[in-house]
Write a structure and sequence with these properties.
The two termini are 32 Å apart. The protein contains 13 helices and 6 strands. Helix content is 48%, strand content 16%.
């Protein structure tokens, strides 16, 4: 109903213009509607309805929005400048049944931008699916103290598993810690093993302190080949892996073409910087990732980006 009211105001009352007199029209219209239908039709709410109809103009997604999102959810989405970000967070709410408080938290922690950074690091030949990982991961929720070691990080993740999975993403299920593999009589240990229900594949997670090293690629490839041979079940896809490092050497990772081997690399931050500093850091990392993508494709920085549709299944060539 609010969407229909907003569309009617935009197209009929305001004639799709944001003229100076529009505010006066909304004030007068609000006064009439409040008298007849109640306080839900204040001037401020009418303005939100017009934004709702304007920014979510595709009627096909309305059934999903109305079934899964409340008006309070929609209000949180309206200030977002990017349509892709609005659709991402709307889909996240619909998929994970997030409340308004958690939605606000995801927006403030730049979940969409961090997923876009991870997506931008993937090539067209990537064996790592899009829209699965983020970069960086914000692990301040684990409460780690200074001078922690890898065992402390792993223990903290398992202690705060619910919070970690909320940060890690939708669809992940914990399988095992310290996964033991025997190769040539030698014990090799993987830190954490998850399963992604939607992707139907195992996800190996390796935790590293300090800066990413090139040797980590061979180590993760060994894990994935062993899991593919001995743990992969019928009907499952090939396992993929992610290496979480305190600092990612992004140029080195690009040269190694990790994603083609089914391996993603992401930073983790154990302390959340102040809001302004955090937003500047995420913006800078995203810009750098887009520049690397542009160099790979020899296109302008705003070209070649694949638009991600968070409400529709990808179309086949015959549907294009």
């Amino acid at each position: 109903m609010y969407w229909e009211v907003g569309r009617h105001i935009n197209s009929v009352v305001l004639e799709n213009q944001r003229a100076a007199y529009g505010k006066k029209i909304l004030m007068a219209l609000a006064a009439k509607l409040i008298g007849k239908y109640g306080k839900n039709f204040t001037e401020r709410n009418l303005y939100r309805m017009t934004l709702f109809a304007e920014r979510f103009s595709d009627e096909e997604i309305l059934p999903t929005l109305s079934a899964k999102l409340s008006w309070s959810h929609i209000i949180e989405l309206l200030p977002l400048k990017s349509k892709e970000a609005q659709l991402y967070y709307a889909n996240d709410v619909a998929t994970r049944n997030l409340g308004v408080h958690e939605l606000r938290r995801q927006i403030s922690r730049k979940a969409y931008e961090r997923q876009e950074i991870a997506n931008t690091e993937l090539s067209e030949e990537s064996a790592v699916p899009f829209n699965v990982f983020k970069d960086p991961y914000l692990l301040d929720l684990l409460g780690l103290k200074e001078n922690y070691i890898e065992a402390d990080l792993e223990k903290a993740i398992l202690t705060e598993l619910e919070a970690f999975l909320l940060e890690f993403g939708h669809g992940f299920a914990f399988v095992e810690r310290q996964k033991r593999m025997i190769i040539d009589g030698e014990d090799i240990i993987l830190d954490l093993l998850f399963y992604h229900r939607k992707l139907k594949r195992l996800v190996a997670v390796e935790l590293k302190l300090g800066v990413f090293k090139a040797a980590y690629k061979g180590q993760m490839e060994l894990y994935l080949k062993w899991l593919d041979r001995y743990e992969r079940q019928e009907g499952e896809e090939s396992p993929i892996g992610i290496i979480l490092c305190a600092t990612a050497s992004r140029e080195k990772i690009e040269f190694l073409e990790m994603d083609k081997a089914g391996i993603a690399v992401a930073e983790y931050w154990t302390h959340m910087p102040p809001k302004a500093e955090f937003e500047m850091k995420i913006k800078a990392i995203l810009i750098e990732a887009q520049e690397r993508l542009a160099r790979r494709k020899s296109l302008p920085a705003d070209g070649g980006q694949k638009q991600l549709d968070y409400f529709y299944e990808p179309k086949g060539e015959e549907d294009e």
